[in-house]
Write a structure and sequence with these properties.
CATH architecture of the largest domain: 3-Layer(aba) Sandwich
CATH topology of the largest domain: Rossmann fold
Order of helices and strands: HHEEEHEEHEHEHEHHHEHEHH
Number of helices: 12
Helix content: 25-40%
Strand content: 15-25%
Number of domains: 2
Amino acid sequence: MSESSLESLKHPQIEKRSPKRWVRPVAIIGIAIASLYGAVCAGLWFGQTKLIFAPQKEITTTPATFNAKYEDVLIPVKNVNGTSENIFGWWLPNAQQEQKAISDRKVLLYLHGNGKNISANAQHANRLMGMGFSVLLIDYRGYGKSEGGFPSESNVYTDAQTAWEYLIAKGFKPNQIMIYGHSLGGAIAINLATKHPDALGMIVDSSFTSMSDMAMLDPKFRVFPIDLLIHERFDSLSKVRSLSMPVLFIHGTADEVIPTAMGQRLYDATSTKKKLVIVRNAGHNTTAETNEFLYRDSILSFFNL
């Protein structure tokens, strides 16, 4: 055996593998994951209105289905560029209210949630009208027969304010107007109420604290910087602290969309005259149907109607 052979046995050579063989695939996977994460973040930023709003155009039900008299209403909304678009709505006049002088009447501005259109709210609007209010029920731009493109937070706030101004133009004073909002409409109602502290009062039915809090209910969104990504904030929790009119919160214990705890947090953060009514076994859209006596009595007694 040669010396070189003996030397190789004494000092065996260990094969050195190039780190490039495994570093490169890991790097590619890392880049792919980062790209996917960034793409999802971009999708959440640019597409979040499509996750929040679910408008439908077709009107499938009217108050006439529930034997209520009503009138179609068109309210123009001015855009920043000088053009205007019409909000479509229904005016449900309460017969007893119509017999009074306009200074003695009470009217309810109805702001519905994120889905469908005023069709889905015709029955409840009729129910509230039966409690002694005349009711103005509107569709935000992009919903039902209302004109305009896809909704946004700023646009629905403007639409609610425009509906308020329509009632003022009809001769109603702020202290004759009750603001009502269900679900997302509750957030819209709260925003409107911060601008009109002299309103008669507000009813917040099955609403949430903020859109960030709603997003965090879904585990798949918890890996993303939600507070940085959400620009349609609907931050009701910070706004209720500045309210000054009486506020009635209503929430069901079986709400499958918005946890009852969010209604409790809104109530706790409100410093004005307030009341929280928890309806046992009521779902997100059934607080009135589940216990109609409690629902009606809570509204009439709290506001001394």
